[in-house]
Structure formats: structure tokens, C-alpha cells
Amino acid sequence: MEIEILKKEKTPENVIAHSKAVYKKAMIIASNFENANKDLIKQGALLHDIGRSKTHGIHHAVEGAKIVKEYGYPKEVQNIVERHIGAGLSEDEAIKLGLPKKSYIPQTIEEKIVAHADNLLSGTKEVDIDFDIAKWKRKIDEPEENIKRLIELNDELIKPFEED
Question: With contact defined as beta carbons under 8 Å apart, do 92 and 114 qualify?
């Protein structure tokens, strides 16, 4: 159903391929968390970039949340879509980037898993956290807080399950 919605919204094919890859990565991460709602993760992962059907800028998360709301998805899915940028954005960071004034930091395990699965993919290619840190250093002024959250997210979701 989510793929049909992405197509109906004229989401670019490369974004759909990326969303499928994020879904697969998110489910791998989620397999380590019994309490994670896999249905929410699936919906959120597949729809996280639906806002790119309207804009490829930072506003795609806010636009995406509006779109999934119009399709009747619950607030939990809307939040996954809205809070998936990096490891989230604080209220101050959001204001600096021209987003509506609020916190976009992932709160639930499902929000965190989808956001971090997205962090670990560039298109459909898996990347590591160092790649993402370098990306944030290029994208925003004063990226320290965002990078700190990114490392904390990785430490929470990935590190405990890495093989030595």
C-alpha cells in the first residue's frame, strides 16, 4: 500500500528505491528490539521521504508528515516522517533552517530506528556513521549538537549489537 501511495504522489523512482532500502535496514535494526512496533517501522520507513514528491529541501519531512496525515496514517507514522532528518533537529536548529518552531528529535524507538536506518544509507548504498558525520559538517553551520545526537543514536541502536 505504501509503495502505491508513493507512486500516486509522484515520488521519484530513486527516492522509492531509497525508501525500500531504508525499510530493509530498519527491519534489520528493529530485529534487535522486541518492543519495537514493526508495522509502524515499515510504514514510516517506506513513507519517510514522501515529502520529496514536493521538495528535496529540508522541508521534505514537514511536507511528508502533512501528506501521510491526509492519507489517514496515525500520529505515530506522521512523527516518524517528520522527525527522520539526521538524528533529529532541536527547536533552535529547526528555526535556523527555516522549519516551523518545534523539536524534530526522534522520541520513540520506531522514530529512532527509521531515522538511523536513513542515516546509514546514501541512496541505496549502505554507508557508515563517519560518512553521515561528514555530510552534516558540510550541510549545516555548527553541526556539533546534531553530530552528538547522531553518535548517541548509533551507540543506542547499532553498537551494542556489533560483532567484535
Answer: no
Instruction: Say how many C-beta atoms besides its own lie within 10 A of residue 149's C-beta.
Output: 20
Into which CATH architecture does domain 2-161 fall? Orthogonal Bundle (1.10)
On whether the CB atoms of residues 85 and 115 are closer than 8 A, the answer is yes
- Residue type for 20, please? K
- Which residues have C-beta within 8 Å of that of residue 40, sequence separation ≥ 6? 76, 77, 80, 110
pLDDT per residue rounded down to tens, the chain (164 residues): 999 999 999 999 999 999 999 999 999 999 999 999 999 999 999 999 999 999 999 899 999 999 999 999 999 999 999 999 988 999 998 998 899 999 999 999 999 999 999 999 999 999 999 998 898 888 777 778 889 999 999 999 998 888 75
Considering the entire predicted model, what is its pTM? 0.95
Please count the CA atoms within 13 angstroms of the CA of 158 that sit on its side-chain side: 18
- The structural domains of the chain, with segments of one domain joined by +, span 2-161
